[in-house]
Amino acid sequence: MAYVEGPAGALYVESVEAERIAGMYDRLEKAALTESESVGFVAALAEEFE
Q1: What b-and-e string marks burial along 15-26, b requiring 16 or more CB atoms within 10 Å of the CB?
Q2: Does the predicted model carry a pTM greater than 0.85?
């Protein structure tokens, strides 16, 4: 069962496809940079182009 939050509230979706998509989202979220890491990354890129 996948938990999907939206503007109208939360839904619980039961399907193999929903589980697969929720798993992909979880992996992407874990791999993403934090806000401060993102700022540092963009700042470093900006310095390269100056």
Answers
A1: eeebeeeeeeee
A2: no
